[in-house]
Design goal:
CATH superfamily: Rieske [2Fe-2S] iron-sulphur domain
Number of helices: 0
Strand order of the largest sheet: 1-3-4-5-10
Helix content: under 10%
CATH class: Mainly Beta
Largest sheet: 5 strands, mixed
Distance between the termini: 24 Å
Shape: globular
Radius of gyration: 13 Å
Bound molecules: FE2/S2 (inorganic) cluster
Structural class: mainly beta
Amino acid sequence: MNLFRSKATPDDEGYFTTVSADTVQADQMTAVSINRHKIILASWDGTLYAFSAECPHASADFSKGWISRYKVTCPDHQYCWDMRNGRILWPEDENYRLKKYPVKVEDGIVMVKIG
Ligand code: FES
């Protein structure tokens, strides 16, 4: 995991510059910080995803958890989410959702829209 701090100014569409797209690998979480928002970047099946590093259950830091394929596991209580749609996978009777952010790649750089 690495932590990249973005410059505070977004582009015209509200996207902030983060890291090189080559940095974001499958089965790894890449943590970035944009204006004090800690965000996880991850990749699965050729698609990039961005979501809040703060677990929606009780605010643990996802960057200390695990990712396998599209499944994100929290380090504190081992709840699991599908990063493709933000839905919880386990426990099945809970309704917490990942806070996802729009993400795009421009000139090889991952751009994330927050706010
Ligand atoms: S804080 Fe993440 S599952 Fe409880």
